[in-house]
């Protein structure tokens, strides 16, 4: 079974930084395109970023471009999201997924910028 466990969220002031992690198992992580998503209360799931298996191709949503950096360690089967210059509108639950649909995904990690 695919298992994705996000961590690293927390409460941070505007302008601050956080680094999220996603530990993956149950599939060949090193061969998978990986994505980060987020969901704010009352809003739909929003795609945040994508990274190719060899980290040679990546993409970001317009709202995070230039502030967030997606990376991965295939040896550790772990995906990361470095979030800088955080804004209040970045608050929400952050998820990782191997699917561009966002399903399946982990339980998420809460990020609160306030």
Please tell me about this protein's structure.
The protein contains no helices and ten strands. It has strands spanning 3-7, 10-12, 18-25, 34-39, 46-51, 58-60, 68-73, 78-83, 92-97, 109-113. A six-stranded mixed β-sheet has the order 2-10-9-4-5-6, with no helix packed on it. Strands 1-3-8-7 form a four-stranded antiparallel β-sheet, with no helix packed on it. The radius of gyration is 13 Å and the shape is globular. The mean pLDDT is 97.
Descriptors:
globular, 114 residues, 47% strand, mainly beta, 6-stranded mixed β-sheet
| Number of H- or I-type helical stretches | 0
How would you write the strand order of the largest sheet? 2-10-9-4-5-6
Pattern of helices and strands: EEEEEEEEEE
- Which overall shape is indicated by the principal axes computed on the Cα atoms? globular
Q: Work out the helicity level.
A: under 10%
Distance N terminus to C terminus?
36 Å
Give average pLDDT, whole number. Answer: 97
Instruction: Please state roughly what percent of the residues sit in beta strands, choosing from under 5%, 5-15%, 15-25%, 25-35%, 35-45% or over 45%.
Output: over 45%
Low-confidence stretches: none
Q: Please state the structural category.
A: mainly beta
Short note summarizing the structure:
This protein is mostly beta strands and 114 residues long.
Element layout with pairings:
Blueprint lengths: L2 E5 L2 E3 L5 E8 L8 E6 L6 E6 L6 E3 L7 E6 L4 E6 L8 E6 L11 E5 L1
């Amino acid at each position: 079974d695919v298992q994705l466990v996000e961590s690293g969220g927390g409460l941070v002031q505007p302008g601050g930084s956080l680094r999220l992690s996603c530990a993956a198992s149950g599939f060949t992580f090193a061969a998978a395109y990986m994505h980060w998503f987020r969901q704010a209360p009352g809003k739909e799931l929003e795609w945040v970023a994508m990274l190719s298996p060899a980290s040679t191709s990546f993409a970001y949503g317009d709202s995070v471009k230039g502030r967030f950096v997606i990376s991965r360690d295939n040896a550790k089967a772990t995906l990361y999201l470095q979030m800088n210059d955080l804004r209040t509108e970045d608050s929400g639950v952050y998820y990782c997924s191997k699917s561009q649909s966002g399903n399946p995904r982990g339980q998420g990690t809460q990020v609160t910028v306030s």
